[in-house]
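Structure catalogue
Derive tokens from sequence
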Amino acid sequence: MKEEVILLNPDKLGYKDRGIMKWQGMILSEQKDYIRKMKAEAAKGDIQPKVEMTEEEIAEVLYNAYVTKLPVAIQAAILRNGLYYPDVIGMVLGFAQNKVVLNVRKSDGSNIEKRVTMDMIRNVELFDILKWNKKE
């Protein structure tokens, strides 16, 4: 007498495997973390030096930004491992002696106040108001 072996697997019983769908949640969170890490590393990457401005030119641009209430992008004259820091973007709140008071928006949406001395500034330029308000 010959025995018949019956193999039962989920497919024969009517189970439909969703495949990648059941893992989508885990993969997405890992992908988001990886993408954030890649963007942070790219932001730290090769930041090109801008044209070095005189103190009078810097003061003129900062004053115009203060009067017109426009944000500015400031490149610091400080190097880290031979590379420049990313631009500091903020609104000019005022001046105190040799310092500029800025309102800087953090990545979480809150604002902080920073004081920057004029000799720490390499370049300053007006920043696009649409990018500042994240309307683009």
